[in-house]
Amino acid sequence: MKNKYGFNLPTRIEVEAGLLKNAGLPIRELLVGSKAFIITDPGVIESGITAKVTDSLIANGFTTSVFEQVQANPKDVDCEKGGYEARRFGADLIVAVGGGSVIDSAKAIAMLQTLGGSLSQYEGKGKITGSVTPIIAIPTTAGTGSEVTRSAVITDTRRKFKMTLKDIALAPRLALIDPEATYSLPRKLTASTGMDALVHAVEAYTSLQANPFSDALAIAAIEKIYPALPVTVHNGCDKQARDALMIGSLMAGIAFSHADVGAVHCMAEAIGSIYDTPHGVANSMFLPAVTAFNASHNKKRHARIASACGLDVSNLTTDQAAELLVNKLAELAEEIEIPDFNSLEQADPADFALLAELSTQNGSTPNNCRPISENDYYELFLECYNK
Ligand SMILES: [Fe+2]
Fold it and tell me: What 3-state class would DSSP assign to 161?
């Protein structure tokens, strides 16, 4: 826990079921401009959500242009194309309609439209001078948290490395949170994105950068996400659980944007850049093993997480509660049918040295609650593979 910290949430948040079909109104009230460049992906277009947002923007006086070339683990080349298209269109605002890949791409595209150049120039923290085209985020998954963070993770296709761009200028001006956008989310996507949200909360709460504000949000997020996640996976129509997951994900996003994530994300981003594994699936594969690794170092915080999950820890010691958490996280991943690391076709022990190196290089490694070496990462990849 840091004794010097700040808390700054530059994103205005509006929450309402059904909000996205009237999205144009709050956007019009907040921003002056007439040209909305919409970033989305083919799956979200197919769901009909992009059309609802576009219609509402047009009804509120905006001219729109849609850019849909976003892939999972978003790529620098697509963002550079999007930046060029946004500039050609003369966008006044960038509207992201989609999951984490879409919202992260929108941040990169807004930046490239304004500042030009190639994406790798802006890798790291605080490389952006001035403001960028205003970004509106409309998440369609409950997991990413990107709608309230100031960072974007984009794959550098030349280096096969996930770059993080981090600057307050990348924070969306407005996040429109409509739980209804997730009601028809397919089961597998619900499971993997929901686990991503849970990892955000767990890693924020155990991060060395945690502070009382991020702690409060992380614990509240865990209280919502842990019980709701299996319900949403087994019964996607349960609106109460869908709503809880959406708000939990939002809280977890605010928490980790102030406290950072840890080793689970470092390993997930490493396999995301080499194997193109979807982010939520990758996180889920490593959460139990990393939690076991970390729990021994800070049993008290892990026992508190167990309690926030609603597990009965009343007659348990701190050690036993932390151990129960590790077991329950593994059970949850199994219950919602997250595949194991060794079920990945590409997973190959010959890559583990490189994966460990990439994980070590990740900017979040120093904030993991337990010091973690390249060799520790190697052993964790091996442990998950041999499970
Ligand atoms: Fe994540």
Answer: strand
| Prediction pTM value | 0.94
- What is 12-182's CATH topology? Rossmann fold (3.40.50)
Q: What distance in angstroms lies between residue 371's CA and the mean position of ligand 1's atoms? A: 20
Report CA(82)–ligand 1 centroid distance (Å).
23
Centroid of ligand 1 to alpha carbon of 312 (angstroms):
28
Pairwise CA distance, residues 234 & 252, whole Å? 22
Ligand 1: distance of its center to the CA of 378 in Å? 21
Q: Where in the chain is the domain with CATH 1.20.1090.10?
A: 187-385
Fold topology of 187-385 = Dehydroquinate synthase-like, alpha domain (1.20.1090)
By the 8 A CB rule, do 230 and 24 touch? no
Cα–Cα distance between 278 and 76 in angstroms, integer? 16
What is the 31 CA–ligand 1 centroid distance (Å)? 29
Q: Separation of 160 CA from ligand 1 center, angstroms?
A: 18
What tokens were used for 167? 């600057």
Q: Which residues of the chain are in CATH 3.40.50.1970 domains?
A: 12-182
The environment of the single-atom ion ligand 1, i.e. residues with CB closer than 5 A, is 196
133-187 per-position pLDDT tens digit: 999 999 999 998 999 999 999 999 998 888 999 999 999 999 999 999 999 899 9
